[in-house]
Amino acid sequence: MRAFRNFRTYFFRGMAALLPTLLTIWIFVQCYVFVQDKVSVYINRGIVWLISHITDKYTPGFLYEFWVEGPGKVTGIFVAIIGVCFIGAFLASFVGRRLWRLIERMFYKIPLVKKVYPYIKQITDFILAKKKLSFNKVVALQYPRKGVWSVGLVTGNGIKKIRDSFEREFLTVFVPSSPTPVTGYVIMTPKDETIELDMSIEEALRFTISGGVITPSEEAFQVRANTDFDDDV
Fold this sequence. Notes:
Number of helices: 8
Radius of gyration: 26 Å
Shape: flat
Structural class: alpha+beta
């Protein structure tokens, strides 16, 4: 039984160490395959068409074998990357921004697309956009009712009219949803009814994304455990 317990312990420890790496590699491989099959292949076929019309030095079969199926197929990926950069530069211009706003307005009017596009845009903007988080600290507050505590990110001091009406300090708090913290609820709550937590913004987001499984103390324990394991090896 002890041998079985040791096997199970070492197996799950090995999986815990290898699985994040394997999943990361798998995601990048799938992205490469998608770009290669759905984008790059058409770019390479365009290159074959262009070369075949410029010169008759090479046969269409040789061009296709080299550019579409051979080592030249990676060219399409580099062309796609450069194309994305050009699109980004164009969208950074005044004309590009105005044009893209018109296109997005059209997306928001299409019956099925308008149900999906805004949420995908929120996620991609959260991951890719170079915007600093406006949150300054993490608090615990009783939400959505008394006796139930939630983790929130402070974004401001509330609306002045409300502060003046109650003559109390208020906080504007964003309560992120789990497991997608890009959505949530913005509430205003009295400052003295919140508890400031010794957590960073990143730790609070990991806590939310994991559904409360990962807490700062457990992260520190995991780091110590991994260090101990490395020392044993």
